[in-house]
Structures are given as structure tokens and as C-alpha cells.
Specification:
Largest sheet: 7 strands, parallel
CATH topology of the largest domain: Rossmann fold
Strand order of the largest sheet: 3-4-2-1-7-8-9
Number of helices: 14
Radius of gyration: 19 Å
CATH class of the largest domain: Alpha Beta
Shape: globular
Number of strands: 9
Length: 337
Amino acid sequence: MANITYYIGAGASCNSLPLAKDMHQRLIEFKEYIIYLIDEKGLNNHFSNSYLTELDKIIRLVFENGTIDTCARTMYLNGRQSMDLVRLKSILSGYILFEQTRKDEGFLTNKDSGKQDHHNRVIDQRYPAFITNQIDGNSRKLKDNIKIISWNYDSQFELSYSNVVGCPIDMALNQLNVYPSPYTNTDENYSIIKLNGTAGLTDEHNRVSAEYLSILEFDPLSSMNFIIDLLKSNNQRNYVPNQLFFAWEDYHIPKNSKELAKKIISETDILIAIGYSFPDYNLEVDRYIFDGNRIEKMYYQVPPQYFEDLKLNIAKVNSDLLQVCENISRPEFLILS
């Protein structure tokens, strides 16, 4: 049986969360939504104004640098990896949670068309179909020959599993063998590797925070209070261990993520890349992960009009991949087993 690995980028979640090119505008809308909750719905969090001030800084930095990853990397290279980077991670975590939680429909309805846009979906509809097809009916885990390496901060796999199987999200993290998570066990055969961790997921005394577990059940005000408090705790230097990070960071969890991803790729026969452009800012990490691979076939799921340009990015990572690469264009995730 062939070992199949899914290599996941932001395009795989684009029906729920925006692509990097749209993030600046969505951050502005995120700010407007907080103001709406304060003015119209009575959001009463004493840290709201401070949160909006920090959010304004991130909005400006994203506009100047192009992507949130570039902002973070710039802070790191400038030696500002302490509180500035902690605040950025807290804002980013809150924003990604915002995109995956219930929102007040009165604000989010498109004022021109009267319809809600696709970013109001908590879960990209392609994920539940994937989970349904790739879960073993007996163990309720991913099939033994299926692995996932994700660059995304979101919880789309976990949320989809929770909905499909009908279990709490902490059980989903455990059943999917996600690394890293508060359930991380060094003896586990991990099925999902998160190269940038998970937004909003905190580890308090080696357990998932109760707020994160139930945030999808919250009303919009309670959700936003949790999001604001992610930054509030860190701003007051009561550090909440945030399991969102960047793959290039130099401490044990990002290092372990890269090593585990490299091991999976070294054992992969078929690679399916979905919604990932192999961008230059991830080039060093991608090269490391794919060095020495034995991949026999690569399916690159991307709209055909982008394929020729993106082939150049693949060549930068590993020229051997081009020899086995085939473009697949389809709305749903390619399912092989």
C-alpha cells in the first residue's frame, strides 16, 4: 500500500479563511467587527482599546510587508522576537479564531448584495468530505498510510473531524494524532504535523484550554472576550503558552515539527500538494523537508492558470519533484487511499 502525504497550504482553506493576499482587508474587517460589537452589542472588555491599538499596528505592518509571515520574520531578524512577536502571535491567533467562529450575521451580511460571503463559513466544506473518506471505520483514526503536513494555523481538520465523528475537539486532536498539541506523545506515530502550530490553542498544565474547546459554542460576545484576553494575558506578561509559532523559529517545538515532517516525506510514495504555492519565505524549510525524498508521484492541486508559474517554485525546493509532478484541477480534495 502506497504511503500518501497531503501537503497543505492556505488555498486548502480558502472557502473559510482568506488567502495571504486578502488578509490585510480581512484584518480591517476584523477590527470593524470588534468596534461593531462594542458599539452595537455591548462588548465590555476593559482591554478592548488596547487590543484595537495593537491590531492597528499589525494591520499597518501587513500593509507595509505584504504578509503576516514577513512581519513576523522581520521582527525576528531585527531582534524583536520577545514581546513584539508574542503580541503578533496573540493577534494572529485571535484573528484566525475569529474566522472560524460564529459571528453576528447583522454585521457580516454583505451590505451591497445582502448576502453573506463565503468567509462566514466556519469550516471549508471540502474538509468533512476528506475526513469521511480517509478515516478508518474501526479505529476512527486516519488510515495508516495517510499523513498530513500543514502550513496552516487553522483547525479545519480538527473541527471537521469533531463534526463528522461527533466528538469534542480535544478528542479530535487526540484521535488525529496531531503534532504539536497538549496531547503530544513522543511515542506516537503522528498523522498530522502542523509546521506553524495551531491558532488559539493554548496549553495550560498540559491540557487544552477550556475556552478553546468550547469557543464554537460561544455567542459572538463571549468569543471576542476570549480572543481579546489572549493578548491581554501576554501583554501583562502572564504568558499563555501559545501553540501558534513559525516554522523558522529556533526552539524545540518548531524543530520537532520539521524533523517529523522530514521523516514523513522520506517515507512518502505519493505527494498531494493542495493550496500551497511553495513561497520563497518558506523555501529554506521546504528544502530541508524534501531533501532526500523518494516520492514517485506528485499531484499538485492548483488552478491550471497558476501551474506553470508555480512549477518554478517547486524547482527551487527540489528539482526532482518536477519530474513526477502532475497538475490536478478540481473543486474537492483529491482522495487516494
